[in-house]
UniProtKB/TrEMBL annotation, chain B:
Record localization: Cell membrane
Parts of the chain that traverse the membrane: 34-56, 63-85, 160-180, 211-230, 245-276, 297-318
Pfam families referenced in this protein's UniProt entry, alphabetically: BPD_transp_2
UniProt keyword list: Cell membrane, Membrane, Transmembrane, Transmembrane helix
Alphabetical list of CDD domains matching this protein: TM_PBP1_LivM_like
Name used for this protein in its record: Branched-chain amino acid ABC transporter permease
Amino acid sequence: MMLLALLASATSLAFGPSAAHAATTTPCVVDTTTGCIQGTLLRSDGKPAAGVTITAKLGGTSLPSKTDDTGRWAIPVKAAGTYTVTLNEKTLPSGQYLANAKTNDRQVSITLGAVAGTIFQLSTTKGAVIDNNNTGSDFSWQRLAQQSASGIRLGLLLALAAIGLSLVTGTTGLQSFAHGEQVTLGGLLAYTFANTFGFNLILAATISVVISAATGYFQDMLIWKPLRKRGLSLTQLMIVTIGLSIALQYAFQYFYGAATVRIDTNNPKTIDLGGVVLTVQSYVAMGISVVVLILAGLFLLKTRTGRATRAVSDNPALAAASGIDVDRIIRLVWTIAAGLAGLSGVMLGLVLNGVNWQTGLQILLLIFAAVTLGGIGTAFGALIGSLIVGVIVELTNLVLPGDFKYATALFILIVILMFRPQGIFGRRERIG
Amino acid sequence: MDYIVTLFQSLTVQAIAPTTAAFAIAAIGLNIHFGFAGLLNIGQAAFLLLGGYGFAISIERGLPLGIAVLVALLCALIFAFVLGLPTLKLRGDYLAIVTISAAEIIRMVGRSSILTSLTGGSNGITGQSFNGPFFALSPLPDHATTILWFTYDNNGVNGWWIRIVGWALVGVFTLLVFALSRSPWGRVLKGIREDEDAVRSLGKNVYSYKLQALILGGLIGAIAGIIYVLPSSVQPDGLGRSTTFFIYTALLLGGAASVFGPVLGAVLFFVMRLLVQTLAQDFIPTSIMNGQQATQFSYVLVGVALMCLIIFRPQGILGNKRELSFSV
């Protein structure tokens, strides 16, 4: 949920305030001598609340405004400063009350030629407190359960991407910064097939995963294998992946724009399981993740090729000496890694209600954290690492504001690298 | 002909812009990390951000300009210590992941809503709230000056004064790196880059030298941050991972481990990107590529250029291939 909010805020940042302002129908126009204090007032059921009086005061001047039929209100101000903005609770529609009433007389700073927004929230109960930052002040076991469930969901989706990256890093030593873009690619492809071409969701997802896997195959054929033969150092290869990541990010923006696109445009249904509310798609995505992860595990443990993969991951030189075609294994690993990342992207897009050019970028460091925590090159470790990272990210919300959730995961990554760089299941000799 | 003249003029305007100077300074700092000491720091943008925050917040709190610069440097110093002490013993690619994560943490904490009173949250700090003292320092008279085709207010927010100071600092730091690279200190640093164990066997404290290099490059990064935010504003999201990657591109383009490489690279980075963008906008019909797509196209080429550079010419334009070794 907070992830969605984070994505949404990132998108609005990418757009800048001008786009948001263009949509305003109220007669407040920003110019060099005018600033606008504005917002949208919605009833607790999400419908606009019209005819509510909101007043901004600075010193002796009092500037009133009324919300229009779309719930929008705007106060043009001619002097910069910190205004006290107050909502007149008597003008609210019947049955609606101001939530967080203590914050009614709020301070809003504004400069001329700028827009300052403030949001009042309504509730059906008098004196309700809605905590948008999800700080720890209202801890409850129900929230703990909800956040843990979201965390396991995030962890399972991260695991799909992390296992692939862990195998790539294990077999080639390369930390690929472009892996996040593989995740984004999967989501955007699913959007193209499901919406632009109108395929049904399962078909669209399947095609997306197949194409994603193909990009891994051709990437290794066209870029990584020639570069290995050229004898580039790992540092150089890592910078190549950074370049690839930049190129892909802007290519996504080129073709899809900066906005978030929704793979499935229907409103998701939710299921309430013992107080934990998740969308149907979340449960399906978690189910698919578990199945795919089990299949990946069986492949690695039971099949001949899977054993060869683990052998290359353990010691490429020894594997080659014992007759394993190392290049073929690495090609396969790239293909699987890209395919799994694509699947992760499709499902993240469905679970988070959308995907944009930086969906993968935002979780790349979480994937790194998961892989490092579990131990590089160990698929099982990547799964455990992902689940831990996912749960930590979501549980952070219980004690810290939402914008710290990724920071906590990265902090843990740094701590692991400092004290146990081989991770939980890794071996010491990989560290160098 | 007119078109070419106008294009040339707009490119030169970009070449001497304060942002270009800030990038050049940031790349000089990164060159000490990556070029001379072989440290793969991919969190350089955080040094810029900390410099910008330290400077802007100090001035907002009423501290004089000199103290504000010291606060900015202190922020970078502390960050370099926190970053360097535990991580400089790790392998190169681990250092890379730690630095990029630490930089992201700085950015996320900076833009978080609970620090809004200090850092302005995700909106950042507007330029006019902290750039006054710097422009008040200008000895230039208050009017616009035209040199060649460059016309700016002498003391305007984006005028001659910030350009003069910015490029003067580029000159100072280039000289500093020139002197350091010939000093015993610089030779030890290059030795560490080439063969850490050999230097250690000569009785040098490798760890301490690496930490010194990280601090020096970081301090220069903080100064770059001040120059970067002065003509605009402190924007945490404007100094994220992409900024670090672009600084790398500039450095590798000009030539890592060379004295003038970072400056040349920074200028070329901005000029070439603008050239590609302008040509794409002017000659490709908007039905195929619109204005925004032309900008994105130019950044796609930045990514491709970074890949090609590191593969085919890792020493860049001015570098020497023998001078450059990649730690892993």
